[in-house]
Design goal:
By secondary structure, the chain is mostly helical. It is 78% helix and 0% strand. It has 12 helices and no strands.
Length: 287
């Protein structure tokens, strides 16, 4: 029953992706990133004020590293969603468990089980299968953004895990990430110009981006707290399925059988890499 929290989180993340892709027709990436952070900060800040929760933290440096890496990953992810099929962008972003497992081995020095390197190789073969048959020449930049978002978000995951080990509550970690995204997006927004007028449709999409993102993170937190970590991590990949369905229904996007084989390889290797890492307790995401 607790696994339903992760399924709900995956659906909400896919809904956020839909809002981003629709809003990209009206707003620049700078505007989307700023409003994503601002709306999420206001919503979560209201919850914090209502509950009178303390925001003071002795781990500001770790929050900053997590926030900056998450912000950069978010920028690249939004660019990818706007430039390539939704399912491809989401799948490339979800290569983060592979890179996280690699960081745990190379940077943290954690031991892994036999066959770990074969799992990583399979994941990268999946990336090649996904990209080669589906992306046109003009879409490779979007693909690089999507893959870059997966690489950089692994750094954010590593610091999220560190904050969890230090005893930081998830709501505080998410709040500071959202606030840093808004602060980081503001100068980019002011320098990018010109600003686009926001009509009723635009406000709904911007609200959806922030609200779906916050709700998805809360559901994911509940899944990791109340359910089994490996089961939750595995079900997180259902975001790819939901995004593929939305892409087909809303934009008539389709993937070839080779592409679906790549998606399957990325998902399988991500789950296996998570299982093989001795310490797999990840409690939040960057989106």
């Amino acid at each position: 029953m607790q696994s339903l929290w992760m399924v709900a989180a995956s659906l909400l993340f896919a809904c956020m992706g839909v809002c981003v892709k629709l809003a990209a027709e009206q707003f620049s990436a700078a505007e989307l990133v700023f409003w994503r952070g601002f709306v999420a900060t206001v919503l979560l800040g209201g919850y914090i004020l209502a509950r009178r929760l303390p925001l003071a933290t002795p781990h500001a440096r770790t929050h900053i590293v997590r926030g900056v890496s998450g912000f950069v990953s978010l920028v690249m992810y939004f660019y990818a969603i706007a430039m390539i099929p939704l399912a491809a962008a989401v799948t490339l972003n979800y290569t983060s468990p592979l890179f996280l497992a690699l960081l745990l081995v190379l940077w943290v020095g954690e031991p892994v089980r036999r066959g770990f390197h074969l799992v990583l190789a399979a994941g990268f073969i999946g990336v090649m299968l996904l990209l080669q048959p589906t992306l046109e020449r003009g879409q490779w930049l979007g693909a690089l953004f999507g893959l870059g978002s997966g690489i950089i978000s692994s750094v954010a995951y590593l610091n999220v895990r560190r904050l969890g080990e230090l005893g930081e509550p998830e709501w505080r970690t998410v709040f500071y990430f959202s606030a840093l995204s808004a602060v980081g997006g503001l100068p980019w927004l002011l320098s990018a110009g010109p600003f686009h007028a926001i009509d009723s449709r635009g406000w709904l999409l911007l609200l959806g981006i922030g609200a779906f993102g916050v709700l998805a993170q809360l559901c994911m937190t509940a899944a990791y707290k109340r359910g089994k970590t490996l089961t939750s991590a595995s079900l997180a990949y259902s975001t790819v399925v939901f995004s593929s369905i939305f892409g087909m229904l809303l934009w008539a996007e389709s993937l070839s059988w080779l592409s679906w084989a790549g998606v399957a390889l990325i998902i399988a290797s991500g789950v296996a890499a998570t299982a093989m890492s001795r310490r797999t307790d990840m409690h939040a995401v960057t989106d």
